[in-house]
Amino acid sequence: QVQLVESGGGLVQPGGSLRLSCAASGRTWSIYAMGWFRQAPGMQREFVAAIRWSGDYTYYADSVKGRFTMSRDNAKNTVSLQMNSLKPEDTAVYYCAAQFGYSQDITSRPNYDRWGQGTQVTVSS
Fold it and tell me: What is the pLDDT of residues 4-33, one digit of tens each?
């Protein structure tokens, strides 16, 4: 099985930056793609960013494009999300997720199989 653990969340002022990390353990060789999703209270869990384990192209939601950067370190079995120019609307619990089976669309939430526990990001003055 694969276990995912997020870290790096916290409280930051608007315009500030945070870097989230997700450590994968267990049967990491089965991972096809990794993604970041976020969920605010009363809202659906929404796509933020994703990358295939063996690829380089990164997908981003329009709402974070140009501000967030996702990266991958296969040797360390980790993915990161660098978040810059943070806005209050970025406030949410951020989750990393692993997809095991092939899919054309790695931005689709139903295609993901394992989820981390989430880390809170609060952007407020």
Answer: 999 999 999 999 999 999 999 999 989 999
